[in-house]
Amino acid sequence: MKLIQLTALAILLSSATFAQEFISDFTWNFAFPIGNTKDYISDNSFRGFAIEGRRFMDKNLSVGLFFGWNIFDKRVGDPINIDGEGYGGTVSGTQIRYINSFPLMVNAHYYFGKRKDLRFYLGAGAGVYYILQRLDLGVWIIQNDNWHLGLAPEAGILVPLGDNQSHILVNVKYNYAFDSGTGIGGNEDNYHSYWGINFGFAFSSLL
Predict the structure, then answer these.
(1) How many CB atoms neighbour CB 67 within 10 A?
(2) Whole-angstrom distance, CA of residue 34 vs CA of residue 10
(3) Which of 72, 76, 108, 112 has the fewest CB atoms found within 10 Å of its own CB?
(4) Considering the entire predicted model, what is its pTM?
(5) 3-state helix/strand/coil string of 121-180
(6) Segments making up each domain of the chain, as ranges
């Protein structure tokens, strides 16, 4: 009898697992630098993308994984202080500055409303940012890269399309990569931060 009960319980748990909804989404990301990031590159970024998978634990809560990439760049002529192994000092001249930001995070989201309706959600991600800085000055190329722990609170909306399995996805995200290492300018307070406005599509299925 106990074996039958355990078998029945396993079947129920398996059914519940396979009935869970899974959402994958792809977004085009706009980014607006603030803080240290803006000090180095003040221009907004219109080159970014992200992919994400979210698994619903119940009707209103999902957990998932997120990977993104944003590219900031600007041509400037302002003097900059550089500090690195084998070189240092203030240089001037035409420069092309780059920042590549790669967040990799686990996240959780809470949704308001019914699954087939327009749904608002709030969420947050936690993980790491790989930040690659680069400075092109004439024939010289200086690069600096660091891994940063980071957080990314988020608010968004899912708009269902006709089949209720495809959605338009829009969200606003604040990205904060905590201090790690030093920047090209020798700044020891080497955090990075930027706002993201992201647009894309999400596709749901049952597992």
Answers:
(1) 14
(2) 51
(3) 112
(4) 0.83
(5) EEEEEEEEEEEEEEEEECCEEEEEEEEEEEEEEEEEEEEECCCCCEEEEEEEEEEEECCC
(6) 26-206
Determine the Cα–Cα distance for residues 101 and 193; give it in Å rounded to an integer.
10
For 27, the token pair is 């977004």
Instruction: Give the integer Cα–Cα distance in Å for 205 and 164.
Output: 10
Pick the CATH number of 26-206 from 3.30.360.10, 1.10.3720.10, 2.60.120.10, 2.40.160.20: 2.40.160.20
Q: Which residue bears the tokens 């000092």?
A: 89
Looking at 39-48, 83-92, 148-157, 175-184, which range is the least confident one?
A: 83-92
Return d(Cα 197, Cα 123) in angstroms, integer.
Answer: 15
HSE, side-chain direction, 13 A CA sphere, residue 159? 7
Token pair in block for residue 44: 């907004």
Q: CA separation (Å) from 2 to 7, 11, 16, 74?
A: 9, 14, 21, 69
Asked if residue 48 lies in contact with residue 197, where contact means CB atoms within 8 angstroms, the answer is no
* Model confidence at 56: pLDDT above 70: yes
Of 153, 158, 126, 152, the C-alpha closest to 60 is: 158
For residue 144, which of 128, 156, 132 has the smallest C-alpha distance? Answer: 132
Of 6-10, 48-52, 79-83, 108-112, which range is least confident?
A: 6-10
